[in-house]
Amino acid sequence: MVDEQFQQLQSLQEDGGSASGFVAEVATLFIDDADRIIADIAALLDQPVVDFDKVDAHVHQLKGSSSSVGAQKVKLACMHFRQFYEAKSKEGCLMALALVRSEFCDVRNKFQTMMQLEQQIEACSPK
């Protein structure tokens, strides 16, 4: 689900180099950004004439965001997406978008669960 990049973010927080809640903040920013990018891609693919260059730019942006937080399955789904927008296949892009959405939903749910658990731990820990 996540790779060593996410573990590095966690170790930054654990080593005291970053404030408590750093990983949760980064995850929240990723979730918000990815939600917006996926909606933008869907809107582009909903057009009668698809601008595949814009689809490329958005998928590339999502791949970068995913990579920066260690969301490996989203990143891999974005890499898979490439073959379809390069071939200018709207049907292929729609299938690839469904996979990206699915992988994003999985990682979003995991991040949200992690953030809830961190809040519970922080609430129970002595001040």
Automatic annotation (TrEMBL):
Q: Which GO terms describe its molecular function?
A: histidine phosphotransfer kinase activity; protein histidine kinase binding
Q: Name one GO cellular component term.
A: cytosol
Question: Where does the HPt domain lie?
Answer: 19-114
One Pfam entry for this protein is Hpt
UniProt-listed SUPFAM superfamilies: Histidine-containing phosphotransfer domain, HPT domain
Q: Does the keyword Nucleus apply?
A: yes
Q: What does this protein do?
A: Functions as a two-component phosphorelay mediators between cytokinin sensor histidine kinases and response regulators (B-type ARRs). Plays an important role in propagating cytokinin signal transduction through the multistep His-to-Asp phosphorelay. Functions as a positive regulator of the cytokinin signaling pathway. May play a regulatory role in salt and drought tolerance during plant development.
PROSITE patterns to which the protein is assigned, alphabetical: HPT
What's in the domain note?
Answer: Histidine-containing phosphotransfer domain (HPt) contains an active histidine that mediates the phosphotransfer.
Q: Which InterPro entries match?
A: AHP1-5/YPD1, HPT_dom_sf, Sig_transdc_His_kin_Hpt_dom
From which domain of life does this come?
Answer: Eukaryota
The regions listed as transmembrane in this protein's record are: none
Name this protein carries in UniProt: Histidine-containing phosphotransfer protein
